[in-house]
């Protein structure tokens, strides 16, 4: 009989599981939206006036940049001091793990995806900021996995991505200090599941009804430290 040794301190994060399931279930719904275009955004084609933003043939009252760690390439917000962290995950197939809706968290996580598939993660790396999976990352995850799972399993895939963390580990949500119709939604770091719904709601209420956004996520907090950089970038984008 196959056995699984899941040891004492186990934390279960149902919220994370439900969010991932929500995303998987709705991915195709989002993709079928007629207005959704999947292509590279060329910042230099963006025209900003006081009441409008224009991009190719599109015009809108506002634009919200959700560029993740690639915000460093956005001329309007590249002064936000990011501290991105690369992470790697494995997807494995196992009939021995009996997690259905719960996530095992024991210095790493095992998250059920359904059909005997599980996500195993994650590593942290601050130097090589790319989405290339490495042998080092894989070995680290396998070592952790093998410390709790004694039954055979199959590795289905191995992926890497970069977490958009900010130097003070707070999100960055709000409008540009100069251009009131340019917004940023970033800095979700390692906690997107918990932070994104809360701050997305705040941002929409702010844009539509001028409701306040928590001061501690205001992009302006970096303006003083980066004023020199900010001014030189603002000149370039005028
Ligand atoms: C291995 C790993 C494990 C994680 N585990 C957890 C976890 O357990 N719980 C949790 O809450 N969070 C976790 N996170 C963090 C979470 O994934 C991120 O916080 C979240 O994805 C950030 O969402 P985002 O949309 O702001 O940025 P991203 O997910 O980085 O998305 C930004 C998107 O913008 C696109 N983009 C950027 N510039 C351009 C451009 N010029 N044109 C077109 N597209 C552009 C990028 O290609 C990217 O698709 C993890 C992250 C990693 C890498």
CATH topology term of the largest domain: FAD/NAD(P)-binding domain
Please identify the structural class as seen in this structure.
Answer: alpha+beta
CATH architecture of the largest domain: 3-Layer(bba) Sandwich
The distinct ligands, each listed once, are: flavin-adenine dinucleotide
Q: Tell me the strand percentage band.
A: 15-25%
Low-pLDDT stretches = 1-12, 234-238
Give Rg in angstroms.
21 Å
How many strands appear in the DSSP assignment? 11
Shape designation: elongated
Count up the helices.
Answer: 4
The level 1 CATH classification of the largest domain is Alpha Beta
- Terminal residue distance: 69 Å
Order of helices and strands: HEEEEEEEEHEEEHH
What's the number of structural domains? 2
Residue-averaged pLDDT, rounded? Answer: 87
Write structural notes for this entry.
The protein is α+β, with helices and mostly antiparallel strands and 238 residues long. The chain has 2 domains: 14-24 and 85-163, D-Amino Acid Oxidase, subunit A, domain 2 (D-Amino Acid Oxidase, Chain A, domain 2); 41-82 and 170-237, FAD/NAD(P)-binding domain (3-Layer(bba) Sandwich), CATH 3.50.50.60. Helix content is 26%, strand content 22%. It has helices at residues 14-31, 135-148, 192-209, 227-237; strands at 46-48, 53-55, 58-60, 63-65, 85-93, 104-105, 109-114, 117-121, 154-163, 172-175, 182-186. Strand 10 (172-175) and strand 11 (182-186) form a beta hairpin. 22% of the residues are buried. The model is unreliable at 1-12 and 234-238 (pLDDT under 50). It binds flavin-adenine dinucleotide. Residues 16, 40-41, 66-68, 70, 87, 89, 121-122, 161, 163-164, 186, 188-193 line the site of flavin-adenine dinucleotide (FAD).
């Amino acid at each position: 009989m196959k056995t699984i040794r899941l040891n004492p301190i186990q934390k279960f994060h149902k919220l994370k599981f439900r969010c991932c399931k929500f995303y998987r279930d709705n991915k195709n719904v989002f993709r079928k939206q007629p207005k959704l275009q999947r292509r590279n955004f060329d910042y230099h084609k963006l025209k900003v006036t006081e009441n409008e933003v224009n991009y190719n043939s599109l015009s809108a009252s506002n634009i919200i940049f959700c560029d993740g760690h690639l915000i460093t390439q956005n001329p309007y917000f590249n002064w936000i001091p990011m501290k991105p962290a690369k992470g790697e995950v494995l997807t494995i197939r196992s009939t021995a793990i009996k997690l259905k809706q719960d996530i095992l968290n024991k210095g790493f996580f095992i998250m059920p995806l359904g059909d005997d598939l599980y996500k195993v993660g994650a590593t942290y790396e601050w130097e090589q900021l790319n989405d290339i999976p490495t042998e080092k990352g894989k070995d680290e995850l396998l070592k952790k996995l093998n410390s709790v799972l004694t039954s055979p399993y199959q590795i289905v895939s191995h992926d890497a991505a970069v977490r958009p963390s900010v130097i003070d580990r707070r999100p960055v949500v709000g409008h540009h200090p100069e251009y009131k119709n340019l917004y940023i939604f970033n800095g979700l770091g390692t906690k997107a599941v918990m932070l994104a719904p809360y701050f997305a709601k705040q941002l929409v209420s702010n844009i539509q009804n001028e409701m306040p956004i928590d001061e501690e996520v205001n992009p302006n907090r970096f303006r003083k430290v980066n004023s020199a950089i900010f001014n030189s970038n603002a000149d370039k984008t005028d």
